[in-house]
Amino acid sequence: xxxxxxxxxxxxxxxxxxxxxxxxxxxxxxxxxxxxxxxxxxxxxxxxxxxxxxxxxxxxxxxxxxxxxxxxxxxxxxxxxxxxxxxxxxxxxxxxxxxxxxxxxxxxxxxxxxxxxxxxxxxxxxxxxxxxxxxxxxxxxxxxxxxxxxxxxxxxxxxxxxxxxxxxxxxxxxxxxxxxxxxxxxxxxxxxxxxxxxxxxxxxxxxxxxxxxxxxxxxxxxxxxxxxxxxxxxxxxxxxxxxxxxxxxx
Length: 250
Description:
Elements: H1 2-34, H2 48-60, H3 66-71, H4 73-76, H5 81-87, H6 95-105, H7 108-122, H8 131-143, H9 151-162, H10 185-203, H11 214-226
Helix pairs in contact: 7-8, 8-9, 8-10, 10-11
């Protein structure tokens, strides 16, 4: 009788030890994944590509294996992506296997971003719209498709979307580069403001009477808007007398 009781107690202790190990291990994985702050909800405004890249980069900095990462997926997904995860059969044998399925299901988010950029490219300036308002709206459309990108990536995307057809009076300065430390958001914003104003100069239609000192007018606006002393006078204009204000400069 005593022997049977001892055996039962030993089995219970082993079972309890296994449970503690399993749940302790799971809690450890959960705490690691929670610190990543990487989530995906499946909304068309979110990029599945950026999410997968973010998770993979975090995984490489930890000792989590693919199986642990797959088990931790409920911690990384929110509705409706979480509902999709709950409903489908779980047949993934590797992280790449899951990534392939996720890309196929949530590809619409990438398509939506492309639609925003195409909309920005098709946007035309109206007759009663100032150049600054026009470029701000154009950049908003392009930028909304790049919400999850770094500052450098946003610049590359917006530059491509905002690049104007230059008039014969305006020469684009390809050598004008972003500041050496784009991580400094203040410096970058000042530089981007200069870039936008350079772009809208390219959109303006000048008559011989207002060609003269437009670059100086732009420099004044830069000082008012950003406090940046740099000049955008690198765009070339043929000088021809005194300057007059154009309604598109207001």
